[in-house]
Amino acid sequence: MRFRPLLALVLAFCLTFIAAPSSVSASGERGNAKFGDIVNTGKANDCPTVSAGSGGSIGIDGGLTDICMHPTEVYVKIAKSKRSKADFAPAKIISPRNNTTVEQVFGDVSGSTFNEKGGIDFQLITVLAPNGEEYPFVFSAKDMKVDFTSKSLTAGTEGNGTTFTPSYRTGDFLDPKSRAKDTGVEYAQGLVALGGDDEELAKENIKRDLSGKGVITLSIDSVDADTDEFSGTFVAVQPSDNDLGSKEPVDVKIVGELYGRKA
User: Fold this and answer.
1) Partner of 56 at 20 to 30 A CA spacing, among 1, 33, 107, 154?
2) Among 221, 204, 194, which Cα is nearest to 55's?
3) Which of 224, 263, 231 is nearest to 56 (CA)?
4) Ranges of each domain in the chain
5) Comparing C-alpha atoms, which of 162, 251, 248 is closest to residue 210?
6) Are 204 and 179 in contact (CB under 8 A)?
């Protein structure tokens, strides 16, 4: 009888010793497998999808949430030569390659109009145009206001609206000559004699926080009425970075995948 407590203690120790490594190993393998399947593949940048051809209808009166927009194509409006008219030319995303998606965007719906209220609603992207020039821009869903054609979403529903594009740089950004909008100096020391009368130099010396407006179209392709999910495509046109007023922005067209669900 006196050996029973000792025997129970030994048995419990053995079971713990045997079970613990197995549990840790299984958890580690699952974690590593998931990480290995996703890391450096760009899959984390993808939006969820709804099976193609899914039908039904979703009422949007309660609002929309988990909106995800993943850019797949980017075009920059530039002129191929000095004599040609500016037109959208395909550009290559060079930074960041696997972190360009806005997601978890949510908002209210009034009538058939969606009004964005928050989420991960902007990304800083840089593209390389055919002319060899790099164009940074803010891919933004901020203050997105979209008027849908009806109060419910079905395959074929379309919405058109606007977005707010914040400045690519903040007021604290210092250029190579330590000029900034809110900190540093407003001019390079070697240019004081010009008195700020030169327009081109004034653009470089005096920084301005210039925001912009964009337009966007959301097209619904598939709807799952059972899960209140929808997917489709979007097309947005927004201004590029203006380098705090020193550059003229160009139009950037972003095309990509769309996902969302009813709130």
Assistant:
1) 107
2) 221
3) 224
4) 1-39, 46-169+209-262, 171-208
5) 248
6) yes
Q: Which residue in the block uniquely carries the two structure tokens 């007021």?
A: 171
DSSP letter string over 125-157?
A: EEEE-TTS-EEEEEEE-TT-EEEESSSEE-TT-
Enter the CATH code of domain 46-169+209-262: 2.40.160.30
Task: Give the model's pLDDT for residue 10.
Answer: 56
In three-state secondary structure terms, 243 is: coil
Give the model's confidence band at 8: pLDDT under 50 very low, under 70 low, under 90 confident, else very high.
Answer: low
Q: Omega into 96 within 30° of 0, i.e. cis?
A: yes
In angstroms, the CA 184 to CA 177 distance is: 9
Q: Are 70 and 256 in contact (CB under 8 A)?
A: yes
Q: Are 231 and 222 in contact (CB under 8 A)?
A: yes
Task: Enumerate the H helices of the chain as residue ranges.
Answer: 4-38, 199-205
Those residues whose C-beta lies under 8 Å from the C-beta of residue 126, and which sit 6 or more positions away, are: 93, 94, 95, 134, 135, 136, 137
Cα–Cα dist 194/202, whole Å: 10
Closest CA to 155 of 260, 66, 49, 56: 56
List, for residues 98-110, the tens digit of each pLDDT value.
899 999 999 999 9
The position carrying tokens 């164009």 is 135
Q: Is the pLDDT of residue 199 over 80?
A: no
pLDDT the model gives residue 11: 60
Cα 11 to the center of its chain, rounded Å: 55
Tokens of 71: 């850019």
Q: Say what the pTM is.
A: 0.78
List the CATH code of the domain at 171-208: 3.30.2050
